[in-house]
Amino acid sequence: MKILFLLFLLFNIVYAGDATIEVIKKADSLPTLAIEDSSISYDNTFKLRFFKSLVADLNVISLFNVDRHHRIVPYNDSSVLVANKDMEYVLRYKIFEDDNGAMNLQMKLLQGDSEVFSKNYRVSRKDIYMFVSHAIAYDINEYMGAKPVSWMKKKVIFAKVIAPKKSEIVIADYTLAYQHIIIQGGLNLFPKWANQAQTAFYYTSLDSDKPTLKYVDIKTALVKSIISSDGMMICSDVSNDGNHLLLTMAKDGQPDIYLYDVKKHTYKRETTYSGIDVGGQFMNEDTIAFVSSRLGYPTIFTKNLLTNEINQVVYYGNSNVACSASGHYIVYKARESSNAFSQNTFNLHLVSTQTDLIRRLTATGVNEFPKFSKDGDAIIFVKNYKGQSSIGIIRLNFNKNYLFPIKSGRIQSMDW
After folding, report:
1. Cβ distance 36 to 81 under 8 Å?
2. Phi and psi of 46, rounded to 5°?
3. What global pTM score does this model have?
4. Which domains does the chain have, with CATH numbers?
5. Could you read off the pLDDT of 197-229 as tens digits, one per residue?
6. I want to staple 277 with a disulfide (CB 3.0 to 4.6 A). Which of 114, 132, 271, 404 is the partner?
């Protein structure tokens, strides 16, 4: 199904306390932070790879102006390097390998020459170094008293098309530096985490007579079929408690939203429009958002599951799709150009059900697969621009976007 869309009206109106307003933090107002490397194990290539990962993570927490110079210093030196004397903070760390082959890291955060925070980390092998980098940034963010960034420790799951009718489902960190293929062989798409602990997931298998929703327990490797449907079968969202799924099925030839009860193994049809209703997202336990063509073009609606009241929430443009919801906020993908001779622009926009404001989150390229973090603090997405695909992270309260290039393949769908 090909959906065409155009968004042509944007607002930039000041409205205090609403995430739809761009919060601009000038870079020169942030405290400066330098990094000093005291590692005694591994080669220079690995040391530099870890340093770059740490710089990226510290930039993403958006609390510092991070110096990008890689400087070497003994861990127990009593003062910071002369080049870092004017820095407000210095992060010094030492990586070393123990007798069991595990990677260990000691770190301390210095203010002036005084140690203000320290912590030790250990992982079983060095190829998962990025999770140590994420943990350091998370802990420093917590020490600084900033809003939690628990999403940095969460894993991403995505489907990647590798050949006609062949795909892989991959578990990764949020930068895609770590990737582990969990499902391969056949055409398996639309993975969705089954719980907040990320110990299981759902996906759609297209290798049988009917599209089938399957469940995978990562710890036990148990795979079981949940439900099948002619035409279409997609799990678009899972409730916070994991007890309900929003499914898109086309049991009567047209796709509609269904609410599936995981414990009872029953479902209820939530939309009955004769056209297209797809992509349901939980906003809270009583309200969902979804994409519908009931106005003659796709745009975003909400439905109250108790009263069955349906409301349009995006009024601008005539093709708005691929939404994700968090509380009363919705992020969606919209087409902003229509050019038969060149690539078109697809941007992400943020709206609130409590105001009439729209905030554009991206500016160039093809931006798709938006997904809120569970706490609503950040949005992950895929950007395609000038032949390069990247994973993007949007920090809503800092008005900052960060990009991590994708090395190979084409992402078909993604969950965080």
Report:
1. yes
2. -70, -40
3. 0.87
4. 31-146 (3.40.50.10070), 151-415 (2.120.10.30)
5. 999 999 999 988 899 999 999 999 999 999 999
6. 271
